[in-house]
């Protein structure tokens, strides 16, 4: 092992001695940069991760807690003007347990405090407020255990519905304020999880009455799923997504004909986010093929009236001697008949509510630019243009009101490609962690050093082969015997000698060069 290390050290010394001044300066600067980079990376990744143990303290209590932490040799940091105390993540439990033994923090309120502080003189309202305070503290501690949450505050508004005089029921409300790690962002599922944690822990609290805020006051929880309100940001996001999908579909279709770099597409979409509800009632007979339904009830009304009169002398006047005679007429009778039938049929009644979903495409226009160089003869004919308009309309899958197609020269395609490639490379490098870049740099430097050492070693071995012992040079040169005769040419003899004595020929050439 020692001989190997000594050999490596000698090789390194020989390598550095063979370098010129400029190469030594470059290697020194590279080594200095690498050492500095690795030191910063180690310092950044090796520094402890601090976590909040207490927040919302007054300065007096914060000073007492930090003094106790100094006695326990636990490093700490303060934040928010000294009202928040942070300790290394691995020391959180130890610090909390030791401080709890000392009675810190004084204002921490737990379930034990809520039940142990009961007295005979305590009113029901005071008991309810203590219970509520303990509940807020427990919920805050539960939320602080979630990933990415440094601190949490929970405020509950729970009305007292036990009063029988109050007829209207009041629902509970809650607000949660979370402080997140730097650069951390809660997902929608995590925010909804916080909402459900609070809603399920408080009686009469609905999820829609819980709001979650970050340290800047911004609302994090999304709208309920059944909400019909579309904010400006939501509508713009949906519209942008529809526009992007249409642009990609049209461009991918045209790219197969003209090439991806020879086509550019711009789509403008107008969406209608108004909710439309249509209600209608339909009556159908229960039996297929029948025009009438089943008879539910029948009522009939029939009337008949007959009127007849008898003719004859009406009699005589008792006060007169003369007999009054009346002309007799033949009497005819009158007759009246009426019949009414009312039938009630049983029909199928169908009620439908048709809700038109918001976000329907109301208007769409497409603009297509094609590189003139990709067109036949470099011109876009009217027939070709009309074919493209039909193709774009079919690709969009909608009736497009406006489709504009034009041909132009693309001058910045190469520049855009180079910019995109450089941005992609930059994004790839930015995604790599710092320590991996340092390790890659170190491996590259080590590889370069060993490659140079190996090349120099091979060069020395070649020189040793080409340089035979000095004592035998004269003997080998003297032993050269060229047999020139009429049957052998000079060229044949020289080639034969080169095959048999390559070392001697090399030494002979070296001597000639040294003499010159």
From TrEMBL:
Membrane-protein topology: Multi-pass membrane protein
TM spans (from-to): 25-46, 432-453
Keywords: Bacterial flagellum, Cell membrane, Cell projection, Cilium, Flagellum, Membrane, Transmembrane, Transmembrane helix
InterPro entries in UniProt: AMP-bd_C_sf, Flag_M-ring_C, FlgMring_FliF, FliF_N_dom, YscJ/FliF
Domain Flagellar M-ring C-terminal stretches: 254-407
Residue ranges constituting the Flagellar M-ring N-terminal domain according to the UniProt record: 46-221
Function recorded in the entry: The M ring may be actively involved in energy transduction.
Protein family membership: Belongs to the FliF family.
Protein name: Flagellar M-ring protein
Organism of derivation: Caminicella sporogenes DSM 14501
